[in-house]
Amino acid sequence: AVVSTQSTGRMSIVEQLNDISTSMNNEIETIRLIDHPKGFELLPSRCEATSIKVLLEKHGLSYQVEIKSNVEYISTNGRFPVLIFNEKDIVCGFSELVKYLWKRGYSLSEKLTQTEKCDMDIYTALIKRLEALELFTSWLIEDNYTHVTLPAYTSHTTWPLSAILPFYKKRQVYRLVASQGQWHDISSEMLMAETKDVAGALTERLGDQGTFFRDRDTGQDLVTELDCLVYGHLNAIFMTKLPSYRMKRALGLHSRLIEYCKYVESKHGLRAQRERS
Predict the structure, then answer these.
(1) Enclosing H/E stretch for 193
(2) Of 109, 123, 155, 183, which one has the fewest beta carbons inside 10 Å?
(3) For residue 9, what are the contacts with CB-CB under 8 A and spacing of at least 6?
(4) Would you call the peptide bond into 44 cis, given omega within 30 degrees of 0 as the criterion?
């Protein structure tokens, strides 16, 4: 006998159960965000933490902040803060968070065309250059390293680790910065020039728009993951105090970026560094 498999337009019981199972597996019940103690986070991690918090809040996802001095060694990929979902899934860094949420149906960019998504990837890569400049500012500018980075980085270690760990970390940062193909020298002048290039590119892309993309149907602002990422970095850079801060001055020359931060805060409710217990 041949059994007809013609579709009736309705889901079978097995399909319904599979759909429910998938939904349950993707459900986010709890989020723990493990971060550095306040006052001991460095500029790069502060930028990433701000972007992550803004993205979670934009999705309406609640999280519980936990403070641990060894968060850098908890991370599975060297990025932090560390996020633990449902007490089992460990996610480290903004990029991994975007991927994790996307697999569970959380996306701010589903309305973008393929071309716009490619543009978003380009400007996300631009923020990678900004991240290298944040590392440079923290680790390779001597005033910042001596008075801020070194005390913070070694605050929870004892000798000889307090001497060994920062030495290796500083060498690692130097190699990372030197690996940037477009950087012919590692200097404060290079820092200023590169920061201005990044700021100029972001300013040009924004134009007179409120956000980086617009909803094609309504013409209204469309807040995407790129806005969360860019706002998080810019806000943290503008809010952080360092002895020598040419990077902040270079970004501050582009008043459009300051206007952008204020706009997305007031218009779209993006806020940075909210305290959660």
Answers:
(1) helix 188-206
(2) 155
(3) none
(4) no
* pLDDT, tens only, 8-35: 444 544 444 444 444 445 789 999 999 9
Rounded to two decimals, what is the model's pTM?
0.85
> What distance in Å separates the CA atoms of residue 200 and residue 117, rounded to the nearest whole number?
21
What tokens were used for 178?
Answer: 């030197």
Q: Which of 186, 165, 199, 190 is nearest to 70 (CA)?
A: 165
| CA-wise closest residue to 41 among 81, 96, 1 | 81
How far apart (Å, rounded) are the C-alpha atoms in residues 5 and 2? Answer: 9
Cβ atoms 81, 34 nearer than 8 A: yes
Residues of the chain with pLDDT under 70: 1-25, 180-186, 272-277
CA angle 161, 165, 170 (to 5 degrees): 155
**DSSP-derived pairing of the beta strands 82-85 and 31-35:** antiparallel
Instruction: Give yes or no for a contact between 54 and 261, defined as CB atoms under 8 angstroms apart.
Output: no
